[in-house]
Specification:
The chain is mainly beta and 127 residues long. The chain has strands at residues 4-7, 10-13, 18-24, 32-39, 46-51, 58-60, 68-73, 78-83, 92-100, 116-117, 121-126.
Length: 127
């Protein structure tokens, strides 16, 4: 298991950028697929982005592709979500999640595939 702590959320205007960080404890960070999910009021928790163990593969939801970029630094045990051209519809609580896998290129997009979760960080985009 891995313990995750998120940071970087805040209040910004439409069109601005934010970078979310997710710091992981332990020595096995490179064994995990890392994902980002978000949950807006009245909506289900939805997939945002995921990155494979080495960072060689990424996958994004249609609503954020070409605007968001996820990356990781395995040496530092940190996972990132760079969010550009933010829209009011991006307003949500954003969660970092980890899923252990033996496969280097595997990604997951369902919340049920992730066993470890951060506490969430609020992102609010005003118009």
């Amino acid at each position: 298991q891995v313990r995750l702590v998120e940071s970087g959320g805040g209040l910004v205007q439409a069109g601005a950028s934010l970078r979310l960080s997710c710091s992981a404890s332990g020595r096995t960070f490179s064994s995990y697929v890392m994902g980002w999910f978000r949950q807006a009021p009245g909506k289900e928790r939805e997939f945002v982005a995921a990155i494979s163990r080495s960072g060689s593969s990424t996958y994004y939801s249609n609503s954020v592709k070409d605007r968001f970029t996820t990356s990781r630094d395995n040496a530092k045990g940190t996972h990132y979500l760079q969010m550009n051209s933010l829209k009011p519809e991006d307003t949500a609580v954003y969660y970092c999640a980890a899923a252990r896998t033996l496969y280097e290129d595997t990604i997951y997009w369902s919340p049920r595939d992730y066993a470890d979760w951060g506490q969430g960080t609020q992102v609010t985009v005003s118009s």
